[in-house]
């Protein structure tokens, strides 16, 4: 019962000084909000990245001119030669049966139409080959895939994503019909099964045509850089296939043994590692801001509690004179400091989760609740309440009851 009474007195004191308590809670919540908000967004983005990469072909890696995650690769890698179609085709031929090799090039912002129906102007026109489906983990729902002959002859045929099919052919079978995309006409030979979204971008809003036809009609002739996807027969063979592919690509690029690679090779794991490095730097910066804010909030808690001790000196004297022990006074004021910090931490967690998920929602990233970070944030706030509230509580508990009763 005595501890219940101490808790009641602590909450009563906080409620009596609403404005002071609210300002202290606000200062604490700012520090928690900054880290929880950032980590909520990062956790959602990480989950979305894992989901997006899992949709790629299994046991695969990519070869490109530039790194995958880089804001402006031209600053550092602009002098690298393009991966042109003849070189990419030679790489594919040299790899032979070692692995499945897919060549791919794309352009966004394309409008496709059929009769009076049109897609939104963000469709992707993909130039690719017969290994497109396996490399991108797609499946044909109806019809057939692009074939080697389609690529060799540069035929005006296409396979279409599920979203394009729904927009252009809501009530008819698209197979055999002709669509217009990028100013050219293509006969639909296959319908790709739906795959969903990744990082807010639909993976079904595309039309895939033979890469030779893409290069012929999109301009630039053979001088477009190609992305290469290599799929190993199994996970166990992936390292060996990757070593072979690097050697073959160096041969195709005409590099000497002492020359560095003028192309980039990356796997799903390397993409995740790169993303992790970026998010770690963001998290470190957020931790720094949060630490400063929480330190300031802790000092605020101590200051408020010292003011409270001074204002309630006579009350402390009365309680001591009627039998309150030193540990009871210590516990009461310590509880007040911890409650202030925990309420601030709770408000910060709520605001951080809401803010982080709001940013995620704007970027079409799935919303999550970071339980681990929320619990850690509350624990840190509780610790701050104890550390910064201990001295004011000890000072209150150490007051001489006679001197305290004389206080005006």
Automatic annotation (TrEMBL):
The keyword Transmembrane applies. It is found in: Cell membrane. GO terms for cellular component: plasma membrane. Belongs to the ABC-4 integral membrane protein family. The chain crosses the membrane at residues 21-45, 281-308, 329-351, 371-391. This is ABC transporter. Keywords: Cell membrane, Membrane, Transmembrane, Transmembrane helix. It comes from Nibricoccus aquaticus. It holds the Pfam family MacB_PCD. Residues 289-401 form the ABC3 transporter permease C-terminal domain. It is a multi-pass membrane protein. It comes from the Bacteria. GO terms for molecular function: transmembrane transporter activity. InterPro entries: ABC3_permease_C (IPR003838), MacB_PCD (IPR025857), Macrolide_Exporter_MacB (IPR050250). Residues 21-243 form the MacB-like periplasmic core domain.
